[in-house]
Amino acid sequence: MLEFKLNLQLFADSGTVVNTTTGTVNAYTGAATTTNAMNTTLKTFYDTELLENARVEMFYAQFAKKQPLPKGRGKTVEWRKWNTFDKAEELREGVIPEGQTFGQSNLTGSITQYGTYATVSDVLELHAYDDIILGATEEMGASAAETQETLIRDGLLVNTNVVYCDNVTLATGAATPSGTSCATLEASSTVIAKLTPAMVNKVVTKMKKDRVPRINGKYVAVIHPSVAEDLRNSPEWVEAHKYARPEEIYNGEIGELHGVRFVENVFAPVLGGEDYQNKAGTKTYATYFFGKDAFGIIDPEGGALEMIIKSKEEVGGPLNQFSTIGYKFETNGVTMLYPERLVRVMSCSSYSAIDDEN
After folding, report:
1. N or C, which end of the chain is more exposed by having fewer CB within 10 Å?
2. pTM for the whole thing?
3. Same-domain pairing of 327 and 227
4. Across residues 335-346, what is the average pLDDT?
5. What is the full DSSP assignment across 10-67?
6. Do 302 and 71 meet the contact criterion of CB atoms below 8 Å apart?
7. Cα separation of 84 and 75, whole Å?
8. Residue 30 is assigned to a structural domain of this protein
9. Has residue 38 got a pLDDT over 50?
10. Residue 72: domain span
11. Which 8-state DSSP code applies to residue 317?
12. How far apart are CA 284 and CA 345, in angstroms?
């Protein structure tokens, strides 16, 4: 009598292997594979959502000079810039003039990786009315942008090309120089060191004299909403939607004044503490005015912003109890390329005593 031992499960696979968004899973054994995955479309969708939401919140990064970093080339890049020449001198007949030297200077920047994630339970994912993964993806995009923006903002803060706004008497509009530190900026009920149209004009004049090249014919400033309110009341202010070609406005752009295009950013510096508080002991604001290629950021191949979603089948433990949603990216923060092309303008506003430091 012959006996045969049959593995009936081999014949049942066609009915027990369940397609999931990450691959297949055996309904009886729980064995999972990532082959024949059906998540390509979903991943593309969520990647797109993350990137689009991140771009909406990026205000400084859109003006940076991008420096590619190919794979396998280390973590540091170098920016090179040619040295400038002095003006020519009058020639003397028969006399060879002294020549000038020509060369380059260089700046380097190194990348660091940043990232975060959140965990979503299977119960929440199953019973929530809204699309949890989509909602988390949108918020992760905002978080990624805020991280990048803050790194750039804080890196630019150390630039020493600084202008302090005049103290303006509110009743008369009379302006007097404030000094050379935040401690001399007024922020009282009668006198405030405001960013006025006249101050914008002074900054533009300084940038012109420093021969700062423009960006598409204009300078750019990134400004906090509390400071922007003062400028928007000016009769010279031109709202962005009134431009001749409004489809070409920058991300966050609100208007133009004296040849400067203003981009509003809630994460523009609101500063306090010993180094930055004003005469009243409250907050001051930094508005960055800059021209072309003032600062640079590294664009690492393979290290750009990446959305990472792990399903409960992949990371949820023995009972598939949670999924994770996160992102990571690599950046140098910011490298200051031409210090003279960025002017940090310090001011106060009527919100100096109310706004929180950021």
Report:
1. N
2. 0.78
3. no
4. 94
5. HHHHHHHEEE-SSSEEETTT--EE-TT---HHHHHHHHHHHHHHHHHT-SSGGGSEEE
6. yes
7. 29
8. no
9. no
10. 40-76+104-154+298-334
11. T
12. 10
